[in-house]
Amino acid sequence: MIVTKQLRKSFGNHEVLKGIDQHIRQGEKVVVIGPSGSGKSTFLRCLNLLEEPTGGEIWFEGVNITDRHNDINKMRRKMGMVFQQFNLFPHLTVTENITLAPIKLKKLPEEAAKERALELLRRIGLEEKASAYPNQLSGGQKQRIAIVRALAMDPDVMLFDEPTSALDPEMVGEVLELMRELAREGMTMVVVTHEMGFAREVANRVLFIDDGIVKEENEPGAFFDQPKDPRLQEFLSKVL
Amino acid sequence: MIFEKLLSVYEAFYNAIVPERRYLAYINGLKITLVISLFAVLLGVAIGVVVAVVKVCGAHTRSSLMRFPAKLCDIYIAVIRGTPLMVQLLIIYNLIFTSRNTNPILVGTVCFGINSGAYVAEIVRAGINAVDIGQMEAGRSLGFPWLQTMWYIILPQAIKNILPALGNEFITLVKETSVASVIAVNDLTKNAQYIGSRTWDLIPPLLIAAAIYLVIVVLLSRLLGAFERRLAKGDRH
Fold first, then answer.
1. Given this model, what pLDDT does residue B12 score?
2. Domain B23-236 CATH superfamily
């Protein structure tokens, strides 16, 4: 579904990604971990070109999205993204946050979009917040609504950039629970996170990115119990 | 003695207002001043928003195709802010609108609008830059093109940052339109001068004009203050 070929990204003289080859398959849940500054967030943000790669290729559903002739805006509609800082639109109500893109981009009639938004809100138990503004919500509620906003576009893949890192500890659970639910439903997911428990439980495959390359990848059991790379052993000994 | 002085002051102001229904000249002048200000500010905002968006776009792109218009906007702002308003007005009036039947009010409006646009552009640009970068990323990640993200997501949030400064710009503009009298626009200032020339006493009509400007500006400030407080209410968490 997503293929990266020798993906490279530099900021000025500093090379953050040094050639990453990955193949993310339909329905797969890939969790990316690594120390801060390792390039894991940059890798994720390259997948929908929020960061423009400086080398290599990214293919999404058979289309080379790094080729400038292909319309990235069209491709992004199929790639939902969830941010560490939620990035809800503060000037719009919860419903408007969710319906803006479907109405403007998919030309969905307003009524249908609203109905869909309410349905999604009911699913996460926040339908009474439909006409609230983001600043009236808790962090956990904001992030769940940000996830729903991305889902409203019916994406084929969801990208999560440290979705629980900005949350108070007691709110992490509700967001992870929603992500687990998505995973059970078969959504293709790429998740950058520090939640090792989530990685072990949900991932099909865990990547360890360090110093701009994938140092180790494996299914979660072997990844956490028999790490081979010395940097990964060191990293896991610190975080587990 | 003092009574006579007061009487002569009273007479001077009476002469500046009542005979030949001179008060109508102030009212008509004020109307023209307000019309020029209002349309100039609308034109200024329109120019300012476009210039600001072009400049922000130019700052965030690597393609030289988009940087060229941004450079033009830089030049526009540098020229407008670097030359006196009165000179701009005279040049536009004498050079560009040379035809005999030009409407000086229209010329004034266009000139003040173009002038104001340069200042508004910088205000709007600062307002746009104050919106969190994550908002642009969120919009783009949903599939919105850059310009649509700007229109639906960034600009509505930037307005809150922009309005106070924009209000000040409007107040400045109301006062600056007095310069329009040099191109034969019968605005408040020009009419006051005209009355002064009829009564052989310039000071009373000019004081009256000054008082009218002051009242308008104070009213506008109050209005803006109330408006800002209402906007701020929606901000509280």
1. 81
2. MetI-like (1.10.3720.10)
How far apart (Å, rounded) are the C-alpha atoms in residues A87 and A93?
A: 13
Q: Which residues pair with A192 in a beta bridge?
A: A32, A161
In DSSP terms, which residues pair with B234 in a beta bridge? none
The partner residue sitting opposite B143, judged by closest CB among A101, A133, A135, is: A101
Mean pLDDT confidence for B116-128:
95
Q: What is the DSSP letter of A29?
A: E
Q: What is the rounded average pLDDT for all residues in chain B?
A: 87
Q: Which of B134, B142, B237 sits opposite A153 (nearest CB)?
A: B142
Residues 6+ apart with CB under 8 A from A116: A98, A99, A102, A108, A152
Look at residue B97 in the predicted model and tell me its pLDDT.
62
Show residues of chain A in contact with B152, CB under 8 Å: 100, 104
CB pair distance less than 8 Å for A73 and B135: no
Which residues does residue A31 pair with via DSSP β-bridges, in sequence order? A191, A206
Look-up: residue for tokens 């530099």? A10
Q: B137 to chain A, minimum CA–CA distance in Å?
A: 7
Share of residues in chain B with pLDDT > 90 (%): 43
Instruction: Give the pair of three-digit tokens for residue B166.
Output: 């924009």
Q: What does the pLDDT average to over A56-62?
A: 95
- CA–CA distance, B197 with B193 (Å, rounded to integer): 6
Q: What are the residue boundaries of the structural domains of chain B, listed by start?
A: 23-236
Looking at the complex, report in whole angstroms how far the Cα of residue A86 sits from the nearest Cα belonging to chain B: 9
Task: Please identify which residue in the block is written with the tokens 């099909």.
Answer: A204
Q: Are B166 and B45 in contact (CB under 8 A)?
A: yes
Helix, strand, coil shares, percent, chain B, to 5 = 85, 0, 15
Does the distance separating the beta carbons of A77 and B142 come in below 8 Å? yes
